[in-house]
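Record pair follows.
FIRST:
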Amino acid sequence: MQMSTKRLRKKLKMFINETLIAVFFRLFNFCLVIGLAAYGFKKYIMPGIRDAMIKDEAEREFLIAEQHVLERRLTDLQEVLQQDADVYKCYAAKIDEWKKVVAHQEVLCQKECEARQTAFVIKEKNKIEWRNKMALQSLVAKKVVEDLHTSLTQHFKKNDAGEAYLEDIIHFMNEKSL
């Protein structure tokens, strides 16, 4: 049995040595795989990730800058809109004032037009009255002249009456001229 124990020990030692070697190679293989994976990751994958991160960071910075530009534009547009609103209010006030002035002028023009029409009507009425008066005077004057002609002709058939009448007329005209 001694031999068998020696053998057994030897086999056991060998088994332990083989197991140790197997574990060592497994560990070595594992480290080698991990190392190769880390090397491949660093060499091939990491630059792509780094480039993507740099690209994403640049895009983020660009978007932030664009946001600032758009915010400035929005502020500028709001200022322009406010200025336009102020100008609109100013023009609206001026237009309202002009409307009031125009309405007042229309009222004045209408009153003036009515006054002219009234004056025209009165003037035409006066002209018609004057024409009627002149026509009436003309008729009356013709009748008076005819009547006077007849009566004066009879009255002045006497010589003395004509001279006395002329002296009265000359005397009357001299008094009116003074």
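SECOND:
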Amino acid sequence: MGTSVAILEEDSWTTKPQLTASLAAISAFRFGETTLLVETIDARGELDADFFLTDTTRLTFGIGHYSGHTSESLPDSELASPNLGYDFLVLRLAHDVVPYFRFVFALKPLIGTDPPMKVLWAEQGIEWFPLGGRDQRDSPSPYMALGFEQFGYHSIEWHTHAQIGIYFGKHFSSAHHTTARLAVGYYDGLDPRLKYAGLKNSRVGFFYAGFLIDL
């Protein structure tokens, strides 16, 4: 569960700066004999400052923190290490080919990790709106997205993320608007449960469905 919120914005400036906060709590569950048990809870936060270089190109600077936590129902005592997480900087460039495409490239230098990670973290992604991003709340836009990441603990590993869905809101507008998307996707890479990725170097592949809202 998570969301992104615009804290400050100034549309009258040429660069239309925005300060946004992204917060998420991600829980992993397993079935017990009579109830649903919580294994891990991950906290993820990012604070970003966005600037429009042109009407279609946006530059982002930010800082983030991810941390992994466990509950009493954790099945593996080796995952109970109290300290696990990482802090990172964000440098992201997004370019839109309105109204059909968005291209994203990001570097996230790691500035503190436990356990140690490779310092490189890179992302690349593309979104495609085959009918065009309609930028109207009452006229949703179908989309497809494909993303790649490179990072890891013992070595730089390749991660793939594919998603299709329907987008509601003003996707290509420079001004901030509340948006939402209904999506299904597939992920292949290091386990998104930070305890399993950091202490077990676990890799997973899975399908998912979700509803995302940016306020």
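COMMENT: The chain has one domain: 2-214.
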